[in-house]
């Protein structure tokens, strides 16, 4: 890889990308990203993107936030923390990342067939009553800019105009409910009787106004879509340090909502 690294020219790389990395580190990332994408090494590529930015030694960038990618030069000025602005070799850090992932490797039963799909859930055509459980987390309404928050990773994946992805996210209650109605309708159709749909849903707070998105979805599932029974609601308060914000909005609480599919009776679920 060293001969390829020496040939990399940084003059065509956007300035905002170059501000995050030591030049030698950036050259290594560029070469390795290209090789992994060409050879469809998705696991290694995901591990590499997972260590792109943070201030910890195991990451590749200059001191930066681990959520939204921005430099933390005020908290870690170069003159006081010169070691944080030195060249960081990519290979050993990637190797340690892979080792960390394998320490938490799931216990997978080999006899169960698996299939991965990249698909819009509003157009997901599930066979009728073919699955037992759905576990998912819908987009947090107007509280996060998913593409902006991952713009550094997206750039290395070849996405230069990340803003077009954030425009697809629902930014008000009605758009959010329209999206969820389509998704839950597809899920309800595909679930077997007695099957569960488990949703992780974030509350949205804008200034002094709180939007209980969990209750919106519960009302939608029970009263409009039908065929669901709400079995359990688990509340989780998010510490302030972990809260992501967008234009003054933030998520202070999350709910885990467990729906059980019953038989429809006048639009409502009848226990099976």
UniProtKB/TrEMBL annotation:
Its EC number is 2.1.1.113. It comes from Candidatus Scalindua rubra. GO terms for molecular function: DNA binding; N-methyltransferase activity; site-specific DNA-methyltransferase (cytosine-N4-specific) activity. The keyword Transcription does not apply. Keywords: DNA-binding, Methyltransferase, Restriction system, S-adenosyl-L-methionine, Transferase. It comes from the Bacteria. This is site-specific DNA-methyltransferase (cytosine-N(4)-specific). GO terms for biological process: DNA restriction-modification system; methylation. Pfam families: N6_N4_Mtase. It catalyses: a 2'-deoxycytidine in DNA + S-adenosyl-L-methionine = an N(4)-methyl-2'-deoxycytidine in DNA + S-adenosyl-L-homocysteine + H(+). Gene3D superfamilies: Vaccinia Virus protein VP39. Residues 131-265 form the DNA methylase N-4/N-6 domain. Belongs to the N(4)/N(6)-methyltransferase family. N(4) subfamily.
């Amino acid at each position: 890889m060293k001969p390829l690294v020496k040939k990399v020219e940084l003059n065509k790389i956007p300035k905002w990308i170059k501000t995050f990395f030591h030049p030698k580190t950036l050259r290594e990332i560029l070469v390795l990203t290209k090789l992994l994408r060409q050879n469809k090494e998705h696991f290694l590529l995901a591990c590499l993107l997972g260590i792109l930015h943070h201030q910890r030694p195991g990451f590749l960038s200059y001191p930066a936030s681990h959520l939204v990618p921005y430099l933390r030069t005020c908290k870690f000025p170069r003159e006081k923390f010169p070691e944080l602005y030195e060249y960081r070799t990519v290979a050993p850090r990637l190797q340690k990342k892979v080792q960390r992932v394998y320490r938490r490797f799931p216990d997978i039963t080999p006899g169960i067939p698996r299939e991965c799909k990249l698909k819009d859930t509003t157009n997901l055509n599930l066979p009728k009553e073919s699955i037992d459980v759905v576990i998912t987390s819908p987009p947090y309404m107007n509280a996060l800019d998913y593409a902006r928050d991952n713009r550094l990773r997206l750039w290395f994946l070849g996405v230069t105009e990340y803003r077009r992805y954030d425009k697809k996210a629902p930014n008000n209650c009605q758009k959010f409910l329209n999206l969820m109605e389509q998704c839950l309708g597809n899920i309800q159709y595909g679930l077997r009787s007695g099957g569960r749909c488990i949703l992780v849903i974030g509350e949205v707070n804008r200034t002094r106004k709180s939007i209980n998105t969990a209750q919106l979805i519960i009302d939608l599932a029970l009263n409009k879509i039908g065929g669901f029974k709400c079995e359990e609601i688990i509340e989780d308060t998010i510490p302030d340090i972990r809260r992501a914000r967008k234009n003054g909005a933030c998520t202070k609480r999350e709910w885990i909502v467990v729906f059980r599919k019953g038989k429809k009776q006048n639009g409502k679920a009848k226990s099976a």
